[in-house]
Amino acid sequence: MTDVDLASRVVGGSVVAASDESFGFKERLVDPGEPAFVPGTYDLRGEVVDGWETKRHAGRDGDWAIIRLGAAGRLHSIDVDTRFFSGNHPTACAVDACTLERTEDPAGRAVVWTPIVEMTVLKADSHNLLAVTDRRRWTHLRLRLQSDGGVARLRAYGEVVPDPALWAGVTVEVSGLEQGGRVEWCSDSFYSSAGSLIAPNRPHNMGDGWETRRRRDIGPDTHDAVIISFAVPADLLRIEIDTSYFVFNASPEVSVLGSRCGADREHGWGLVAFDVPVLARTTLIPDARQVFPVDVAGVAALRVQAYPDGGIARVRALGVPAADGLQVLHDRWEESS
């Protein structure tokens, strides 16, 4: 659960240009929802598709689309998802990347693109997971098709590399997806993903949150839990627990523990001690944002415990980088440039 889709519209990703979008809109590439298809449904463009699809006969250079990442960072893999595209999927694709200022035109002739995925044959109606080994920080991607065709979604999985200048002298939502926060583990995600907990937007409905199955092993200490890590250790000032839209199934109580350590390569988060009290076991009310002042220094990750089960829409931890945290951010920024 550690990698984040940096291209998703949830974090502000956008498809800023494409060579063609005759049959399917380019913006569908970064839609956070899963693709769908209803056979036999037509509009004036032809059969309705849930993805980006170009006209036939693209020519020698193939088609292309440029994606601005919602959060700049290092990439680990790219999923070129061709689900529901079979007789009309592209033959192959390559991916290039660049780093630009927000106001620069990524479609301009002066842009220097770096290949990060070589031309690779694509499977029809499938996830096509392509590894990225270049560890530099990128702001834009260019998906180049060897031919014409359709792609349902593009997911750019990696880690956010926050700009240290944006953390200096201000309080930051250190748990937030846009600032390098990550959901590392959860005890259960039967109804919906715990990844929603750190999304930057307000929840839209009950499905836009974390909801577990109903526990039947009720006891004094029975609970579900989720681990959220930060980009760097932080001094915490406020915790927000949001149960919006969870009217009849919100978690009745919550507690928050912190850790001053990170995961190790051998055991991951399995042996990390969460021994720093952040928020004592506290009663929650349903369908409401609840803010709790805290004062805890040097926390690298949180374990949020929901008693005994239920739903939470968002968890937000606000604070400032710890004494050495800002330097770590600067070092990471330099390493990825």
UniProtKB/TrEMBL annotation:
<dbReference type="GO" id="GO:0000256">
    <property type="term" value="P:allantoin catabolic process"/>
</dbReference>
<dbReference type="InterPro" id="IPR015908">
    <property type="entry name" value="Allantoicase_dom"/>
</dbReference>
<dbReference type="InterPro" id="IPR008979">
    <property type="entry name" value="Galactose-bd-like_sf"/>
</dbReference>
<feature type="domain" description="Allantoicase">
    <location>
        <begin position="180"/>
        <end position="320"/>
    </location>
</feature>
<dbReference type="GO" id="GO:0004037">
    <property type="term" value="F:allantoicase activity"/>
</dbReference>
<protein>
    <recommendedName>
        <fullName>Probable allantoicase</fullName>
        <ecNumber>3.5.3.4</ecNumber>
    </recommendedName>
</protein>
<dbReference type="Pfam" id="PF03561">
    <property type="entry name" value="Allantoicase"/>
</dbReference>
<comment type="similarity">
    <text>Belongs to the allantoicase family.</text>
</comment>
<dbReference type="GO" id="GO:0006144">
    <property type="term" value="P:purine nucleobase metabolic process"/>
</dbReference>
<dbReference type="InterPro" id="IPR005164">
    <property type="entry name" value="Allantoicase"/>
</dbReference>
<comment type="pathway">
    <text>Nitrogen metabolism; (S)-allantoin degradation; (S)-ureidoglycolate from allantoate (aminidohydrolase route): step 1/1.</text>
</comment>
<feature type="domain" description="Allantoicase">
    <location>
        <begin position="12"/>
        <end position="160"/>
    </location>
</feature>
<keyword id="KW-0659">Purine metabolism</keyword>
<keyword id="KW-0378">Hydrolase</keyword>
